[in-house]
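stage 2 :: seqdesign
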């Protein structure tokens, strides 16, 4: 997927990153997002012919995780706000990759509120879902139940790293040059 050319539907070659070649309306770039984004969109593409169905499921799952993260009206109102944000339909229509990251963020917080053992796995998947989400790593420390110890922190970091690498390494191994290029 990291070496798959696609048509330039915008007819705007200078809008692509430097080094990207646009010839005869074809962009020779490939999939520019982490592999987990591709995996999250795969069910909608395979089962229903449009990856945006997966995005829709991610949006609904994110809203559910937000709405039921705690008791009371505030989480439910936050979920309604998330669903009624004016750009939600635009993001869905244009096929942005943020619904998967939003779902993983909401699921991570949902699991953290319940102190589920799967929380560090979700942290790793969240960080692996978008290039910039490495900045969420320090915040993930807040999800570790007290009392903190170096052993617990290192265990969480190891579990998160293994989860993130497990969904990324197969794609790197398949095409290291294409992965690095994108």
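stage 2 :: out
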């Amino acid at each position: 997927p990291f070496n798959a050319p696609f048509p330039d539907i915008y007819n705007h070659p200078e809008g692509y990153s430097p080094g990207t070649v646009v010839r005869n309306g074809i962009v020779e770039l490939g999939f520019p997002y982490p592999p987990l984004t591709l995996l999250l969109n795969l069910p909608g593409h395979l089962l229903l012919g449009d990856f945006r169905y997966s995005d829709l499921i991610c949006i609904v799952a994110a809203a559910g995780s937000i709405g039921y993260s705690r008791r009371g009206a505030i989480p439910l109102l936050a979920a309604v706000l998330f669903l009624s944000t004016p750009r939600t339909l635009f993001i869905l229509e244009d096929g942005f990759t943020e619904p998967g990251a939003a779902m993983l963020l909401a699921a991570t917080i949902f699991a953290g509120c319940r102190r589920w053992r799967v929380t560090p796995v979700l942290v790793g998947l969240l960080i692996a879902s978008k290039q910039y989400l490495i900045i969420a790593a320090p915040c993930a420390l807040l999800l570790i139940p007290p009392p903190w110890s170096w052993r617990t922190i290192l265990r969480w970091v190891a579990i998160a790293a293994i989860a993130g690498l497990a969904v990324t390494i197969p794609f790197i191994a398949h095409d290291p040059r294409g992965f690095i290029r994108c």
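stage 3 :: structure notes
- The longest strand covers residues 21-23.
- The two ends are 10 Å apart (CA to CA).
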